[in-house]
Every structure is written in C-alpha cells, then in structure tokens.
Queue: 3 jobs
Job 1
Amino acid sequence: MEGEIQRFIMVWASAMLALCYCHTIGRITKPGKSRFLAFLPVVLLFLYLPLNLHAVFLVGPTSFFLSWLAPFRILLFAAGKGPLSSTSPALSLQQFLLVSCLPIKIRRNKPDPSLKTHKSPLNYSVKSLIFATAVPIFQNKEKINPNLIKLSYCVYLYCALELFLAMIAAMARAWLGVEFEPQFNEPYLATSIQDFWGRRWNLMVTSTLHATVYDPVRKVSTRVFGSKLAPLPAVVATFLVSGLMHELIFFYIGRKPPNWELTCFFVLHGRHRAFRNIRPSSARIEVDFLPKSLDIKVCTSDVLLVAR
C-alpha cells in the first residue's frame, strides 16, 4: 500500500505540472490549432496516468478526474471555450488547476432558480444515513428480493457519488472562496429520460459533453441534414462518447477488456432521447415523436435489454 500511495502522489504531481504547462501555454497562445497541438501530449498523458494505480479507491476517482473531465476541458480550452476560458476575470493558476480536473464549475452568471446551488445539511444527512445502510443490506442480500438489491445498487451509487463530489466541491470552495454551479439536481425527481440526463444527473459531465460533443456534431449535422434533424446524430454521438468513457473508467478499475454493455446502454438511451424530442433551432416547442405511454415502454425495454 505504501508503494501505491507513492505512485498516487507521483501521478497527481505529474498532472499538476502538466496543467501548469497548459495554463502557461494558454497565456501565450491564441485558441486554435497551435494550442491544440501543444495540449495534445497532455491529453495523452492523462489517459496514461491512471494505469499506474491499482487500488480501486484511488484509481476510480483519479481516472474520472484525469482521464475524463480534464482531457475534455483542456480540449475546450484549446478552442477558447469551456470553464477554463473565462476572461471575466481570467482564472488564476489555483483556479485553473482545480477547475481543469475536478467536477466543479465557477458560477459566473445569476443562478438558475430551478437549480439548488446549496443543499441543506439535512439533505446530505439523509443521504449519508441511506448510504450507511449498505453494509447490513448487502450482508443479508440472500434474504432480499433480487430486484430490490438491484434498486439498492442504484440508490447507493447515487448517494455515494453525490456525497463524494459535494465533499470535493466544498473543499475547493473553501480554498478558492468562490461559488460553484450545482453538480446534481435531485435526479430521483426526474419526470422523463430527458429531464434525468439533461437537467439532473451529474451536471458537470453533462455540460462538458454538451460543449465538446453535442455542439460540434450538431453544427456539422445542421449543414448535412438541416436544423430539424441535426439534434438526432448529435444526441446519439454524445451518449456514445459517454458510454465509451464509462467503459474506459471501468477498464482502469478492473483492467479487463470491455464487454461494451455500458456503451450499448448509453447508445440505447441516446437513441431514445434523440427520437423522443427534437427541438428545431427555429422553434420554441418540442415535437413529440412518441406517445408518453410508448416513451415509458421504450425506455424501460432499453434498460432491461442491457441489464440482461
């Protein structure tokens, strides 16, 4: 374990040095091809660094921060976009280092009233208590209905993820003294698959994928298919990339070849999301292609198909 901790320190020290390099390059170059080429070795380095770790509790967060969030945000920075490209005011070195690889985004505009920027201690206390029941539940899982066990996995995953990311954001907020945009928006209150993925679940990843995948693909698709159909390939491409990144994270953790189940899961959800609602760029209303009852059946069948 001592050797693993030393490797963990070396991995993050290397990452911080690489991000300092990106910060410096960003100050002396303009967005475009030259900045992209300068950042490309850093992106490749971040994909390599988690391979030096083996402990799940270290490689899991490290791969998420360094191999998922950081490369996408650095590529956005190369194009002069994203949270690292703020000019009002420009990010300090400390802010740049944290925003590059942590699931945080400094709030610049007036907060959306529909999003809770700060959750009450009671909210986190309840989720902590729910997560604490994981041990007795799984110790006696043979006596519990298998479907309830599967449901409990989802609940515990959500509670653990939100509590962990909230802790990271709280420490970063205390260090930087700034406010961040919310990371989750009570996903258990989602009323549809669009509401869940687009406005409630893991909002930092959602916004990052929207800027790096959805927007470019939609821009190209608009020229090919027109503005009405452009969201179709853009949505599917976004979910495809999300699935591939999930496969990558699980590869880092388990060091086993991917079975592509996660990719299939996200592609199916992307297909469902794309055909469920299309919002033409010139319209303010959503066009429903599927009745509500069929929408629920298709979504459920997608989940069950992949779960099998």
Note: The longest strand covers residues 277-278.
Job 2
Amino acid sequence: MDAEIVKPRKATVLSAPPKFAWGIDSPTTLYDIMENIYKGVYLDHSGTDFYKDIWPVLAGTYKLAWVNEKAYQGHGPGGYGNFLPQEAALSSKDTKYQAQRDFIFGRLRKPEFKNQDQAHTIFMPRLSGDNGDAIEPGTIRDVPGEPIQRFAALTALQYSRFEDWKDGNFTVGVPYGTKTCVEDYPTDEQTVVLARAMLDQTIGDPLYPGIETYWIAKDPKIYQGAGIPQGMRPPFRIDHDKVLPGFLSRGLSLPWQSDFDLCNTHWWPSARPDDVALLDRGGAQQMIDGRRVRWTEGLRDTPDDVSSAFFPGSTDMVHHWRSLGFVAKVPENSESLTGSLPIYVEQERLFPRGKRGY
C-alpha cells in the first residue's frame, strides 16, 4: 500500500513588538486563550495540575511586581500576596490551608463578565479589560458600556482549574524548569512544550487591542475545527480560508509605538514595563521598599485628552524605543539582596534618564 501523502499546511506567523520584560509572563497568554477555545476537544492535560495550572499565575504576580507599581502594592517582596514563600502551603491539599485557598480564589474575577459587582481593583487580575482602561477607585465611573468590561479576568478554563485547586481537587505535579531540553520530555509532550515555549510569552488578555494580536484571538470562528490530523497536540490552527494574511494584526495600533505610549499602568506590564527597579539607585534597600522609576522616564507624556491629536509621548516612543531598557532577572548569586527571592531590574538602557525625548 502506498504511503499516505501528507498535504502541506499553512503556518501562522505573528510579528510583534519587542518583549521588554523577559521571564515575566501575563496571567493569561494566547496559549490559555486557545486551550479555552479548544477545551471541548483538547486539553493540555487531564485534571488540574498545581505546577502547570496554578503556580505560574500565582508566582507570576511576584514577577509583575518588578514592572508595575500596582502589582507591587500587593505582590512585592514584602506583600501579603507575595506567594513565593508560600509555595509549600499552596501546593498542599492539607485542610489547614483551606482558608488560604478560599481567600485567593475569592479574589479572582469571574470570567466572561459574569459578576458585575467585581468591577473593582480589589479583584484580580488588576488589569484592563477589552472595553477600555480599568477604573481606579475615586475616578469617574460614568463610562461607555458595562464597567465590568473594563477589567480583565482569567479564561473560563483557568478559573475552573483554580476552583478545583480551591476545593483540593488537584495533583501537585512537577515544577517547570526541572528539565533542561525538550528531548527530556516524553515524545507526546514535546510538541506541547514547544508550542508553550512561544505562546506562554504572549499576551492573551487584555486584547484592547493587544500586543501580538487583538480581540479577534478570542473568536472561536477564526480557528480550524474539522480536518486537523488526529493526535496533533496541541491542535490550535488558524482557519486560513477565513483569516487572510494581515487579519490577525489589522486591529492593532499603527504604529505599534503609539500603544506602547498610551497603554500603560493596567495593560501589558509583562511586555511593556510601567515601573522598574534600578540596581544603581538604592541597592538592596530599593528591592524591599519598592522605590521604582517610570520605564519611560525622559519621554514626554501624552495628555489624557487626545481630542487635540497631540501625541508627544507617542512621537518620542517612535524615535527612542530602541534605547529603552530591558527588564531581566539578576543572576542567581545576587538573590542575597532580598534573601532567597529573585529580583528583576532594568538593564541595557541607552536613553539617558532625565533627558526629554524631543
């Protein structure tokens, strides 16, 4: 019998702005968005796995504290929401930690805007939604649309896994990083690991418009359903009969530097830092007390009222984005600055601080 001829399949390539905070991920990534859409026919794994499903989100809040002052307030080195020292308790099913799991789960915003009463920054994630900037306490709430739509939430699948964890229905699993190369994983997991290696670096929420793509990524109709080879893991495929070249990015800002200027504080700190730490300003004590500087220090501010079409910050970002710093983890031997906690600081910045961008 002749061997089956495998027809070539189109690939989907996204070209995105630089990721200025390496090793710091969004609570919801494009992998999470796609797995949620395909959950009726595919799951990364069965059940809820603490180290695959829960810990990346909880530990990720500490990392976000190094690029966003709002995250630092609750999740910084000295915050109650710094979950790194609580890893043993949070990964345990012991009933003595039940109240802790209940409290954390109770702070999660319900997905798909189901609870209108959670349009508040005390619920997590403290990020904007797909209908505009998050509403800070004390600001005017007379905004178009439902206020809850201005806040991000985990996907329904992520939320259900957190609910399993809250109820003690989970396996502990194995921490990420215990394997050094993809060949160390079982063969049937290698394609999943490779897919996650890329998609876990992306922004899945908020998508207003987004970094790599915009809200269209949440539309199930753009994905291929039938015709995917059996056993393909993960089966995430764009339907190229419906989605033509350019469709996945046509809802993004042009130029992308404009969004990098305007969308700050509540948007994508894992890609576009808001507030950063500098080792040469305060040393170890700065790591503890949270002294931060604006990542865009030196660039002009764009007024909140953009009706005059005056965008000085966006203009400066177009000219100087190449000279802004990257946030990266300090080598392991520097963790003594904060005990055993990792620290992330701005590095390789070329644009002088204090200088105006124009």
Note: The beta strands are 275-276, 293-294, 326-329, 344-347.
Job 3
Amino acid sequence: MMTIRLCTPKCFVILLGITSLVLIARTNLYKESFGSDDGRSCKPEPLLDSIARVNGMFDDLKTFVMFIGYSQSVESHTGAILDAHPQIVIPQEYDVLGNWKMYQDKKLRDRGKQTHMLFFFLYYLSTFQAIFRNHANKPSQFWVWTSKVENAQHYPLSDSWQGTTNGKIKVIGDTSSGSTTRQLTMSQKNFTVLEDIQSVIGIPLKFLHIVTNPYDVIASNVIRESRSTVNINDAKDVFALVETNAELKKLYGDAVLDISMDQFINNPRETMIQICRFLQVTFYNSYLDKVKGELNKESTGARYQVIWTDEEKEWVAAEMKKYSFLNSFDF
C-alpha cells in the first residue's frame, strides 16, 4: 500500500513559522479588540509609513563588510560572533558577490531600491538563521538565498543579539569568505563587481581576512574530500586563493584587516576590540565577555591528520615567505 507523507520536515518548518506568526497576530488583535480602551486606534499603518520604518533601520549604517579567506569554519564562526553584536548584522554564507546579478534588475535599479533590497535580505536571513539555526542550512523555499554552500554550520550564541539589533545597525555584511575569494580567483571581472557593489551601497566597503595556517587549510580540504594524502595541487589551489587575497589587500589597503586565527584564539578579547575598532562599532564589555571563549572550540591541528612528503612541506614553506600575513605560521 502506498504511504502518503503529509508533512515533510521542510513543510513542518514552514507551517511552524506560519502558525507562530498567526498566533502572534491573533494575540495582538485580541489585545487591541478586547483590551482596555487606551485611546489608540486599530487603523492600520499606511504602507508607505511601514516601508519608511523598515528602511529607517539602515539609516545609521557605516560599513559593509565582506569576509575573504579559505572556506574554514573559523571564518563562519567569526561571522556568528559578529552577528551577536547589537550593532552588526552578518548572516552566514549569503554570497553577495555570487548573488549580485539579481540586484542588477533594471526596474530595481531605476527605482533606486538595490541597496534597500540587499540590506533587508541580509537582515531577514540573519533573523531566519538565528531562529532555525542548523535547520536553516538551505531554505530553498525562499528564493532570496541562493548560496552554493552545502551543510553550512551555524553557531548560536545564547542570550546574544544574533538575528536582531538594538535598533542602531552600524555594520552589515556577509561571511562567504571562501566563495568570495574563489570567485575573485576564477575571474578578474569579479573585481569590477566589487567596485559596482561599493558604488551602489554608498557606504565604505571593508574586508575581514581571517588568516589560517596554510598547512591546516590544505589538510582540511584534503580531509573534506575523504582523502588522507596531500598532493602538490592541493597546496597550489590554496596559494591561488592566498595570492588573490594579497591582490585585494593591495587594491583596498587599510580597508582590509588581517586577523590571524591563532591571534584570535590566544587573545580573543584584544582581537575583538581590534575588529570593533576597524568596523567602528562600540566594544561593550558584556559582549566581549560573552564571546571571548567562543573560538577556543576551533581546532588548529588538521595538518597532523594527513600525510605529507618533505617536498610538499618545503614548497608550502617557501610560498609562505612571499606573504607577510603568513609569516607567523609554520608546520
């Protein structure tokens, strides 16, 4: 006999969300209709006023931040920590660079709504991920998110500002570090896309470069492919990304901040203060106390879990000497 599934997990999530919204709406309507008469009218707010109120959330924005890097978990984890700040909105793995084409719609551009649409989607996605956490990996029912990242890990911080703000958003952005760097590596035309993004958003574009030991990056990629032995092409692939990030640093200068993973783990409070200053947001003591131990959960020993030849180790060591931001690392 054929069994009919009445509710898939995805449907359940959607229905749960709709039910919650309906219950909230019904509760508010009940209070308005049957509560004490305090003189307020139940007349709906004009649509234009509602739109202005939503757009007003972004009036104080000072910085658009993009992550560049090497598709390591520490990059997403750092983004989650920043999203927990009351003045910052950074969802996981939206891929602004890869999705930028949809903001080139002529009607959207002619109406000057590109920025509002981008900012609203990023804010929405941050909230969605904070609510559903790892169940929000790929909400394909929402066309807004077309990230190619599979099984993205989300890092919930309890009792924090993840998914919301204190009403004064200063920074908004995207954590798609590996995707951004790889797209820039694959096509120089994407550097022009960055220029277009900068032109459209109308606020400074900054980059966070989370620098991980190249030996660990190479090893992580090998492990991700269920292999145990490194080959020279694995190393060359990673250093192609390194070269792209170095090129980006030359182009954008002080708008790129290098943050060593080891630095973050060993001195989390000082590093977070450095990032907050770079992004021009307040570094609240309560926030710093909450996040200072988060990155201790990150592992830095992937290089010991795979097999290297001496030649491969030496090749990587020689390449590392070409880049000042890699000087602190060794095998």
Note: Strands lie at 63-68, 88-89, 171-174, 205-211, 256-260.
